[in-house]
């Protein structure tokens, strides 16, 4: 009986040389002796085949992130934290990637959101000699890896645009080793470096821009702990344009004379999608058999998040934002969506469904999950202070999964709170007040230069300056500013410029 399906392809050779062939082994041996196979061993240790035909960018990124030993900071399955394609969804919905693939700029965005240092180069703003130097740099080290975005046609291969990591370089023949993540189609293979450049120097019809390559390495500083900017929703473009382009013009054109007036000016035109733009990084886990146990590692991560939240609530800017939203909502309904506190139950209903989808490997189908019950409870870790956990039952068809969301809290003191009356102190979880405060702190310093009142300008600079922030909060704000800097470059759908270097600003 005939079976209408495909099992692998014959690798066109030339121009490619199969890695496992006698010639491929010779190239490997000589490159190893020359020291340009150093990155190979980490990559091959964590190598994986893309799980969907259009997931080449996600699979390449998962391999490299794991090879760099970057901690995703959230669970993959069971107790394990590990990068998987299903977790790389912050810049493009997985169902869209599955249907259409992913662009060069979005892969760079994902890498940055995942906590890597990214340098992205298009062939239109680079050269083959620069590319060769970067290949030599990455293949001679375990600390940097290169992902190429190229078209298969110059290699006489079937298919079109593709992503894969580069695993090695043979100097004498000027050939690179492509670790093709579509292993169901082609095995790893050596190709001439200049031919790979030609394959990268092609136009992606989806964007109208050249393909290219990106270098990934570990950030010297940890990424944000509690907040992140998300470009998963299409509205991120309007948010980025408002914050980067419109706010400075508004401040320059209006004669503001006080901090509340500045906040009114900014918030009255703030897109309603701000809640989808700056997100609280929540930690979700399966309910354990003994639900009263919190691991030491979970406790430490939660404590770090709480430190960030506490420091945000202690800033002078937070007090202005809180007072303004409290007063504004009483006479202007347009501010209600900003000032109202979202209940933990409402947050949990959304976050736990996402978490359950991650834990079951079905993140592209979050809509299939329903949140049935909610219970706010306290756990104790090693006899320490209680920790708030929102527990619920996530339902998908006939399947049920108990899920916990760990909730960071800070002790926010009211004006009447003092050490003699601790009952006046209120426990707060991340809300719109602190999220908006952090977003304002993350705006580029040049944002405020248009304010004409010099006294007010000096006051605003004091409120938004990162120099005097505690170290933990300063790192959080600078990471968000770095994300915003990336989105400024990417807000016209794709990253432009000679080099997109995503560094801590």
TrEMBL record:
Which residue numbers delimit the Peptidase C83 domain? 1-221
Q: Name one Pfam family in it.
A: Phytochelatin_C
Entry EC number(s): 2.3.2.15
What is an annotated GO biological process for this record, any one?
detoxification of copper ion
Q: Does the keyword Cytoplasm apply?
A: no
What top-tier enzyme class does this entry carry? transferase
In alphabetical order, the GO MF annotations are: glutathione gamma-glutamylcysteinyltransferase activity; metal ion binding
UniProt entry keywords in alphabetical sequence: Acyltransferase, Cadmium, Metal-binding, Transferase
For this protein, the record's Gene3D superfamilies field holds:
Phytochelatin synthase, N-terminal domain
- Does this entry carry the keyword Metal-binding? yes
Name the chain's protein.
glutathione gamma-glutamylcysteinyltransferase
Starting at the broadest rank, the lineage of the source organism is: Eukaryota, Viridiplantae, Streptophyta, Embryophyta, Tracheophyta
List the gene name: LOC105032919
């Amino acid at each position: 009986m005939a079976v209408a399906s495909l099992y692998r392809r014959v690798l066109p050779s030339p121009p490619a040389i199969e890695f496992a062939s006698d010639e491929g082994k010779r190239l490997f041996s000589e490159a190893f002796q020359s020291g340009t196979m150093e990155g190979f061993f980490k990559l091959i240790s964590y190598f994986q085949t893309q799980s969907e035909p259009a997931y080449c960018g996600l699979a390449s990124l998962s391999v490299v992130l794991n090879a760099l030993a970057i901690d995703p900071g959230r669970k993959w399955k069971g107790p394990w934290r590990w990068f998987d394609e299903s977790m790389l969804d912050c810049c493009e919905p997985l169902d869209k990637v599955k249907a259409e693939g992913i662009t060069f700029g979005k892969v760079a965005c994902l890498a940055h959101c995942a906590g890597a240092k990214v340098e992205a180069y298009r062939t239109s703003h680079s050269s083959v000699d620069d590319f060769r130097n970067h290949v030599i740099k990455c293949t001679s080290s375990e600390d940097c890896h290169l992902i190429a975005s190229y078209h298969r046609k110059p290699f006489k291969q079937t298919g079109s645009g593709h992503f894969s990591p580069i695993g090695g370089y043979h100097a004498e023949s000027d050939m690179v080793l492509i670790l093709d993540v579509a292993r169901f189609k082609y095995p790893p293979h050596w190709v001439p470096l200049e031919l790979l450049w030609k394959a990268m120097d092609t136009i992606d019809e989806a964007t109208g821009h050249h393909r290219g390559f990106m270098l990934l390495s570990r950030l010297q500083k940890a990424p944000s702990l509690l907040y992140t900017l998300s470009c998963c929703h299409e509205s991120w473009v309007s948010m980025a344009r408002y914050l980067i382009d419109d706010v400075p013009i508004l401040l320059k054109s209006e004669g503001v004379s006080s901090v509340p007036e500045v906040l009114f000016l900014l918030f009255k035109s703030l897109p309603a999608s701000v809640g989808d733009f700056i997100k609280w990084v929540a930690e979700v886990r399966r309910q354990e058999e003994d639900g009263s146990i919190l691991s030491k590692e979970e406790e430490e991560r939660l404590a770090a998040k709480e430190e960030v939240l506490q420091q945000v609530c202690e800033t002078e800017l937070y007090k202005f934002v809180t007072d303004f939203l409290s007063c504004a909502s009483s006479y202007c309904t347009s501010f209600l969506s900003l000032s109202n506190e979202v209940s933990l139950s409402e947050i949990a209903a959304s976050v736990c469904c996402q978490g359950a989808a991650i834990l079951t490997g079905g993140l592209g189908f979050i809509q299939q999950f329903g949140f049935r019950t909610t219970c706010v409870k306290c756990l104790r870790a090693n006899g320490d202070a209680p920790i708030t956990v929102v527990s619920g039952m996530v339902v998908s068809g006939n399947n049920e999964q108990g899920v916990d969301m760990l909730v960071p809290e800070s002790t926010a003191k009211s004006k009447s709170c003092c050490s003699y009356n601790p009952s006046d102190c209120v426990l707060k979880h991340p809300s719109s007040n602190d999220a908006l405060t952090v977003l304002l702190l993350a705006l580029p310093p040049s944002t405020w230069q248009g304010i004409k009142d010099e006294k007010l300008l000096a006051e605003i600079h004091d409120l938004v300056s990162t120099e005097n922030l505690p170290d933990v909060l300063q790192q959080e704000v600078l990471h968000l500013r770095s994300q915003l800097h990336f989105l400024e470059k990417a807000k016209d759908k794709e990253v432009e410029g000679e080099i997109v270097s995503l560094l801590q600003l």
